[in-house]
Model the fold of this input.
Amino acid sequence: MSFIDQIPLTFVILAALTLGLAPFVPEPHLLEKLRMLAQGTLVRPVDIFDLVLHAAPWALLMVKLGRMAVLRGQ
Done:
């Protein structure tokens, strides 16, 4: 967890907003893949890879914020 503590929050937010939402037009890729997952049409390996790729910065952001909250509460 110390590795996550060393990553600057600004970098993680920037990664989530750029890689996490790119391409922006016609809709963010992450939203498209989540919609496909909810509809049950997320079956191709490239689509699953896309979901993991675009969700990773958001997952890292959630872990980082959670970790910051835990450390602040101690």
User: Anything to note?
Assistant: Helices lie at 2-6, 9-18, 29-39, 45-73.
